[in-house]
Amino acid sequence: MTLCPGATSTNFSINAGNKDILAHKFITQTPEEVVKEAMKNLKLRKKPVVVCGFKNKIIVFLSKFMPIKFILKIMSRIK
Where does residue 78 rank: exposed (0-12), middle (13-18), buried (19+ CB within 10 A)? Predict the structure, then answer.
């Protein structure tokens, strides 16, 4: 199983010097939420790739309909 946790609420951003933490709170999950979903999917053994969190699943779904240049432009702005 491959786990794609997305943004997770840890001290990583703070230690990396990112001061725009409030913007990330909209899309982050706690480590406990990520582990809970990972363990649930590991027990089910149905999906080879698991995207954690409803918001992350929406982002992955919508990205399928966006031009790659647009996605790369957005990703280049994320610190």
Answer: exposed
Instruction: Determine the Cα–Cα distance for residues 20 and 13; give it in Å rounded to an integer.
Output: 9
**Cα 55 to Cα 29: distance, rounded to the nearest angstrom:** 9
Alpha-carbon distance 16 to 77, whole Å? 15
Give CA 33 to chain center in angstroms.
Answer: 12
Q: How far apart are CA 27 and CA 54, in angstroms?
A: 9
**Structure-model confidence comparison of residues 67 and 19, the more confident one:** 67
pTM of structure: 0.67
